[in-house]
Amino acid sequence: MPMIDVYAPSGTFPDPHGLAARAAATVMEVEGVPEIPMFRENTAAFVHELPPAAISDVTGASGHVRVQVMTNAGALDRDKQLAVVERLTALVAEAADDPSLARRTWGHAHTNEELVTAARAEIASLQKG
Fold first, then answer.
1. pTM for this one?
2. Alpha carbons 23 and 13: distance in angstroms, whole number
3. One-character DSSP codes across 16-49
4. CA–CA separation, 45 vs 59, rounded Å?
């Protein structure tokens, strides 16, 4: 059964409980399981509010969110993985009332090949500039 963890600086979400409920419902919907108690009562989300000092990127900024979804093996094929990431990223930005947060939400289910390709493209653009 899916477990969703959302980690964010304290105060990011005015309604963490509402976010948790919507995140759980979103994953269940994308997963496509029946609306029965077994799935409704065992798909849960947890919003972890951390002190801003506990989060940092390389520049020292702490305005980031991490979403982790754990499911049983094979529950989400690649298309469903991408759908979960897209929908939860949008949900996080909406729940924080901050559209720019989508850029700073660790979300996309990147393959290693996609990361290497993206890094090479960014390095190439920096070398041109």
1. 0.82
2. 13
3. HHHHHHHHHHHHHHHHT--SSHHHHTT-EEEEEE
4. 29
